[in-house]
Every structure is written in structure tokens, then in C-alpha cells.
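Appendix C reproduces, verbatim, an entry submitted by the partner laboratory led by Prof. M.T., so that reviewers can inspect both the input and the predicted structure.
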Amino acid sequence: MGKRVVIGLSGGVDSSVAAHLLKEQGNEVIALFMINWHDKTGIIDADCPWNEDVVFAELVAKKLGIPFHVVDLSDPYRKRVIDYMFAEYKKGRTPNPDVLCNREIKFDAFMKAAEAYQPDFVATGHYCNKETSSISNQAIHHLMAGDDPNKDQSYFLCQLSQEQLSRTLFPIGHLQKPRVREIARELGLASAEKKDSQGICFVGKVHLPVFLQQKLKAKEGNIFEVPADLPQYTNEKQNPKDLEAFCEPWLYDKEDGQWTGKHQGAHFFTVGQRKGLNVGGKDEPLFVIATDVQTNRIYVGQGAAHPGLFRSGLKIIPEEIHWIRKDLAMKSGESRDYLVRIRYRQPLQKATMHRTDEGMYITFLEPQRGVAPGQFAAWYENRELIGSGVIHR
């Protein structure tokens, strides 16, 4: 017996094929297109990001013979994603708007808008899978990695809840991307050759400093180059038994480095960044190893192997710890081994998680490059995403 399913039809190939598969399975499918952003400021190509997409989405819906509707969610998107993003950059942190967009918009505001059509489920074109089991007579929903290792998008859904998962379908999670395009071509869908979207979710590819200058003013500051043989890199502060010290970021003062240039605002930069420094004449490329928005300083190091780029641990404060599998939530004093990633498409890393009253400390088997406060750390058991949290430091 088919179900009534509202699918978020974006105009891209993934949601198009997801809609087709749902219909093929005998479901009553309704397409709902989200408008989430109107402003063109800072957008590369200066095109309205959704103008073209809505045309593609409507063509696909017509081809598939399913009803097509449009909903404007730009107000909650600005308040709950973009304003959060500006606030995080102002604090000198590096947010992940795509994770927020899924938690706050696609799986919250969009789900609420879809209720007008009384669906049994809402569906998206994400490359991930959902499995459901019964534990102690309670349904538990498992968020699993997508079968295509090059496209697995489970990380972007790391803040979802059991309630959100219970109402969601992921029709293409078992497919490889080339097969998805092949199906679209076979069906003659308008989106078959459409390029994958890039940049900030629903906004598009942006020139970040220009985009951020809508709210954050440019402010000239100094760049200091830190040598790779700084004593703190070899000090024995790296004692994993002292979790607080072990998970501290590298801290610098201007005396630790040599003045090497000017920048237009520390809040426009993030750890690991190479572009935009505009400092030449060095033997190796410069990378940002730390930013300080209080003093408006940036600290940089030469070369991709600079020790300031690597850390062996990080901390998540208690209120930022999120468990998809609440039944597996760790108690204070407990330690557990998981596989962890701190950015999309990063290979999973072996790590130990330590829950204390102060929060969650994650210590890695191998030092990690570019640990950035504001990003999300997500932990997995094999292919299942168990939980996540915002990197505090």
C-alpha cells in the first residue's frame, strides 16, 4: 500500500530521481520547492540562486506527473541559519550553515510546511540511508551512511532527531551518483545534466568576505608568522590524561611570531585557510593557524605540514552535545571509542570520546589538521551516525 509523500524538489538531479523512485514504488508523491534566499549580495555570478532551479523543478514534476507547489521559507532561513552564521563568524568561529539548514529548515520548517498536504512521510535527495529496529519495544531509527562513499551526506544530517528521522525517507541512499544521473537521462528529466549545487545551502557559491560584509565590517589588523620550531609544539602539555590541556587549541601572542602583513578582519578567516592572505615572498605557502578576533590578529605558518595546523583533541560543551541515538548517550565519567569526522568528506578517524561534567573531549589516534571551532564533529559506529556536537575549541 503506497503512502503519501511530500518531497523537497530542488531542481537538482538527486531530488528528481528520488521523486521518480517514490512514484515507481506506488506512493502518492507531491513536490514542494523551497525558496529560502532572495539577496544577491556576494553571490558569484550574481544570479538569483533559485530562479533557474524552480524552472527545472517544475519541468521535472510535470514530466513525472506529480503536483508541484512552492513555499517561501526565506524568513526562517535568514533568522535561523544566516543570522546564526553571521553571529558565529563575529565570534571568530567557523559555522557549517549546511548542517544548520538541514536541522532548522529542511527537517523542521519544511516539514511543518509539508503538513498542509497531510503526508505520511517527507523525502529528500540526500545520499544516506535510514534503518529502523526495535530496542526494548521502542522503535529506533538509525541514520546510516549512503552507499556511494564519494557522495555520502550523512554528516550534513548529524543534528537530526529521532522524531525527524521517523518521518523521513531517503530514496536514493542505496544508489551511486553515476547511476542517479543515468536514471535521469533514461527518463529524459530536465535536471539530468544539471551541475551539483555548490556553496552555502540555498544561497549558492559566494565570495565569503563580500557576503559577510553585509553584517560584519572590514577592520584592518596584523598578520604574524609563527615559526615551526616554537617551543610549545614540543612541550609535554600533550598529556592525554589532562583532557582540558590536551584539547586546548594552540595559543599565540604577537611575540611568538614575526609581523608579515595586514588583513581586513580576523573574523573573515579560519584555521587551515590559505587563500586571501595576500602575503608573498615566502618559501612555502602560508596557512592560517589561529585567529584572534579580540586583538584582530591572524597567526600563520609556512607549509601544509606546519605543526600549528594539527591538533590531537577537541572539546564540545555539554549543551552542544547531540545524540541521534539517545539510547547510546554517554554518562559523565564514561569513555568510548568511535570513528569521528570534523568536516564533510573527511575520512573517518579513530578517536576516543571522554564524557565529563565539563563536556565531551575527543582525543584522536592521529593529529587532525584544521580543527575549527564552530564546525561539527560527528561520531559513527561503523556506518551509523550516532551523534554530533559543535566544536567549542
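The longest strand covers residues 359-369. Additional entries are available on request from the coordinating office.
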